[in-house]
Each structure stands twice: as C-alpha cells, then as structure tokens.
Amino acid sequence: MAPLSTAIRSFRLSRSPAAPRALPSPATRLAAPSRRRRARSVRAEAAKDVEEAVELKAGVAVYKPRSYEVLVSDAARSLAAAIDDGRTRLEIEFPYAPTPLPLPLGSSDEFIDANVQLALAVVRNLKQLRGTRSCIVFPDQPEKRRGSQIFKTAIDSIEGISISSLDDVPTGPVDTFFRSIRNTLDFDFADDNEDQWKSDEQTSLYIFINSSTQDLSSIEKYVENFAGSAAVVLFNLELDTLRSDLGLLGFPPKDLHYRFLSQFTPVFYIRQRDYSKTIAVTPYIVNYSGAVFRQYPGPWQVMLKQADGSYACVAESASRFTLGQAKDELLRVLGLQEEEGSSLQFLRQGYKNATWWEENVDQEESTAWRT
C-alpha cells in the first residue's frame, strides 16, 4: 500500500486546476443591493395590489369613511379595478355622505361646485394610481367656462387633464341657433382660458358631471362621437332620479335606459334611504335608515345605519337590489317584517314593489347596470 503522503500528492495532482474567481467590481457590488431593493419593492407593490383586490371582492362588513378623501380614494380604487377588468361604461354615485361630513348643499351652484371638486379629486387619484389621462365633460359651454374659472388652480395641478362640454357634439342648424342665443343671453364670451386645457394626446377616460335628464341624449351622442373605446363615467348624476323622468312629456323616451344607460356598471355606489314603520307597541313608530352599497368588484350590499353613523352590511347579492328588496332586508334584520303572504305585507308593499326600469329586464340591451 502506498504511503499516506503519496496518496494525498496523487489526489492533488489528479484534480484539474480551478479557474480563478473574479471579484465583482465596486459598481456591481453597489448595484446588486439596489436591484434587490427594487425587486422587493415590486414584490411589495404586487402583494399590496393583490391584497386590495381580495379586500374589494369580499365587500365590506362596516363602512364609515372618516372624510371625503377616503370616499374619493375608495371610488378611485374601484374605478381603477373596473378599468383593469376591461369595463368601459361606468357609474359612480355618492351624492350625499354616509356620515355627517361637510358637503355644501345650500344652493344648486354649491352642489354643482362640490361635484366638480369631487370629480377632480377622483381624477387626481386615478392619475396617481394608473396614469390615466382624463377629460371632464360639463353639460354646456357656460358651465364649462364657469368651472374652468373657479377651479383653474385645481385643474392646472393635474397633469394631462382636459375639459370639454356637451356643446361640442355636432348638431343641426336649429340647435346651433338656440345655443348661440343662449350663449348671448348668458354673456358667454370667450376668455383667455378657452383652449388652455385642450390636448392632442388620446384621452382614456371621460367623466360626465352635473347633467340633467335632457342632457342624457347628448351624452349618448358625445360618447358615440368622441369616446370610442375609452372609458366613460357618469359621475354623481343621480341616475335613478333621472330615469324616473324618462318617457314624460318633454323628456327623452324610456328606450334611452334600455339602449344606453343599461350599459353602465356602478363601480362605487351609495344610495341612502330613510324609513319609518308603525308598530302596535311602544314606541309605535320606528325610524331606521339604510343604503344600497357597491364597491367594485365586491357584491351589492344592503347596509343598515348604526347609532354611531356607520353602515353595517345585512345582506349581499351578486346582482343589484331594488329599493323594495333593500327595504325588505332592513325590515328582516330589525325583526319588523310582516309574515310572508299576509294582508299586512300586501298593504305595506302594494301591488308593485319595483320601478319600471327595475322590472323590464327583457327590454334591456345590457344587464351591466345590474351587475
């Protein structure tokens, strides 16, 4: 047997020489931690997005925003989620705060101005979230000019925003004549800000604000002429109130809902209602409040107002609750619902428990507004 020293020497000689390991340069050593930090940051952002998506899909158990900033942030997140899902016809509705927050309601001008402020806040949040280029569409040229004068500083602070009006829709000679008369009577003369917020870059989101029932037909034409595949938001128009006027003398026909309004998915929706019910024992009259609530992509929810001003979920559904169904859910959770099929239930509900636009499903070209 060979001595141990000879075996060790033979083992060393039989090994191939290892290539020298190159040491990383100072620049590489500095860049590596930076890349790791960026990777961690990307993973953290992705995890945050997934967490927020899961949270939204689950709905909310209790909703009590601390401020309008929270409401606007929630609306912008829901809007971004819907756009990411490929939805392009959208509705946002929260005209009155679900908690006693300072919303000016002293006059129509104050309400109009409040809506402009809220729309600009949503646009600013959406710009930060997705880099979206938005266009605020006013109901007419005088409203556009007034809004641009009052909120010039706020508009200037948002990159990529543009403003427009429904008067930009091509019309016939009769409408053009009456618009010119209106502009003259309103002293609607051009000013230095007329073309300040026009942009040659493509708009990816149009937000319609402060429109009336008569304006709905113009919104449809505007969308057909200018929006194309861009996302469209009907913002705080109180569509259910506007729908109730459709079909009346001097207003657009009901077909406007079946053809156009039914395409719009509510992505952030709060509609409050106050109720009272007479009972046979003290206190004889029970007052209660609730809301139909939706935060996309979460389910539709019926919320009961609590003593502290918060709203607690009492029912959920994948499809939209009618106001009658929402009221029934509130009565059920309060233990005030009459026996099913009883005469008292019929006297309370009556023959019909839904509006015409909630009932006529077969005439709708789209069910998006219910989902």
UniProtKB/TrEMBL annotation:
Region of interest (Disordered), residue spans: 17-38
Domain of life: Eukaryota
Protein name as catalogued: DUF1995 domain-containing protein
Pfam families: DUF1995
Domain DUF1995, first and last residues per copy: 65-327
Segments of skewed composition (Low complexity): 17-33
InterPro entries reported for this sequence: DUF1995 (IPR018962), LPA3 (IPR044687)
